[in-house]
Amino acid sequence: MNSQMLQADSPRTVRIELLALDLNTCTRCVGSLANIQQAVTLLQEVLAATGTTVSVVERLIASEEQAHQHQLVTSPTIRVNGRDIALETVESPCDACSDMCGCNGSVACRVWRYRGEEYTEAPVGMIVDAMLAAIYGDTSTVLATLQPYTGVPDNLKQFFASQQARAVFSESYADTTTATASGCCEVSAQATCCTAEEKVSCCGTATAAPTACGCQ
What we know:
There is one protein chain. The chain is an alpha+beta fold. Helices cover 45% and strands 18% of the residues. It is built from ten helices and seven strands. The chain has helices at 3-9, 27-42, 44-50, 64-69, 95-101, 124-136, 140-143, 154-181, 187-190, 199-203, and strands at 12-20, 52-60, 77-80, 83-84, 90-93, 108-114, 117-119. The strands form two sheets. A four-stranded mixed sheet has the order 2-1-3-4. A hairpin with a 2-residue loop joins strand 3 and strand 4. The radius of gyration is 26 Å and the shape is elongated.
């Protein structure tokens, strides 16, 4: 059996990957995932007839490092067999992601252009076209527009930085609230109320002096 016959008999596979900043509240990301599932359902007969297997991977990008690792340029991104199904990067302000990071409307997420129209969720037809191209090996239109990756865009850097700052603030606030509720004063006051040698008698603990405010 020659190599051409082996290649012809090899099973077809379509790997659909969704890269997103959020999969709970962002309507663009959540809606695009729902449309991926709808596209797969619509092509079930084609997939069965051609012996094609499909896998759908949901990838939440939570940091600048992860964005760089997966070469994310905009969210959401859909790749079929490793190739972005959109031929260009177009964005518009995204209220959901801006609210999520406290960025005051400055986060922009992907807009999809398909057959002369713009969509804020990946159109089912665009996903179906990309899947059919992967099944039949027609990637010429995508190959012609591939661009080299130049790093994480400033838009995403701002999102991740704001997310991290909010997380640090929330953690710090939780620690302060816990310390105050346990019967001692705030952490900032504990740091300066007395010398290190006097900490036990000065600040005390909730168990040792449950009715006292430690630093006072």
